[in-house]
Amino acid sequence: MSGPVRVGAVDCGTNSIRLLVAEGTPGRAGLTDVVREMRIIRLGEGVDATGRISDGAISRARTALRDYTAQMVEHGVQAVRMVATSATRDAANKVDFFDMTADVLGEHFPGAAAEVISGQTEAELTFAGGVADLRPSDGPFVVTDLGGGSTEVVVGELVDGEARVLGARSIDVGCVRITERVLHSDPPTEAEVGRAREVIAEQLAEVIGAVPIGRARRWVGVAGTFTTLSALAQGLGEYDPERIHGSVIPLERMREVCDRLVASTVAERRALGAMHPGRADVIGGGSLIVQALCDVMSERASLSELTVSEKDILDGIAMSVLARLAG
């Protein structure tokens, strides 16, 4: 293919399912958004305790995926890739979820189904998407994708337009998982917050030992917790992707916002104009993870600010579809 094509990317995580329809030319850099959408489906609800994806969660995912598939058909998508992350990796009934995705997607895109990718592939896609709009000279970068069930930390650089990963680690702590495990009160008690900090620190110790954070010159945060925190740090009355994408937040300001959210009730968080209602009950847990990351980035890389990107693994997935079409 030599001319512009439209591709579809679907990212199904522990908390949300997201769609990107984008247009680009195989073999050339750059994507133009056609449709970008996110829905909270809480696929990982209860998985940490039961080891299974609930029937209700699979039903919510099916409804959203049917709508996404219809949109991709409507907008003339020629190739699609769907990636499923943390919640599906270890679930005892994960085959039920994957069979559902094959049925829904396959009706219009033969052979398409969700795939579980390796940690290395996830790191590469996350990094490529997160730094897509940044200058290579600002690197090396450390990109953090804070999801519902896991958090990915990737250090890399851009060389001749290509993303080069220097180190990556995925840890089993995310905003949904830490909330379900530890933060049971509303708002969390001091003891719960203390225990959550201990769990997060134990997990981050793996990152510190495995990823060359000290080489990074810029920290980039991607996905819903970071973008929501950016909106709140800027005092936005409503969620505004244009003001969030590329925003630079001092770490001290980020810590302040996180402190406020951890101490707030779910109802108080939900009343904030930039807060998605489906994120209000878990963003306290996400805030504790972000605070711990702020400490790591300042101590290990002497960084004092965070760049927040609206682009992330979803964009990396779309870029990978274009690369396949280029052959």
Average pLDDT for all residues? 92
What is the distance, rounded to the nearest whole angstrom, between the alpha carbons of the first and last residues? Answer: 9 Å
Based on Cα principal axes, name the global outline.
globular
What would you report as the Rg, rounded to the nearest angstrom? 19 Å
**Main sheet overview:** 6 strands, mixed
Percent of residues in β-strands: 15-25%
Strand neighbour order, sheet with most strands: 8-7-6-9-11-10
- The helix/strand order is EEEHHEHHEHEEEHHEHHEHHHEH
- Helix percent band: 40-55%
- How many individual β-strands? 11
List low-pLDDT spans: none
The chain-level structural class is: alpha/beta
| Tally of alpha and pi helices | 13
Would you give an account of this structure?
This protein has 327 residues and is α/β, with parallel strands linked by helices. It is built from 13 helices and eleven strands. α5 crosses α13, α6 packs across α12 and α10 runs antiparallel to α12. The model has no long low-confidence stretch (mean pLDDT 92).
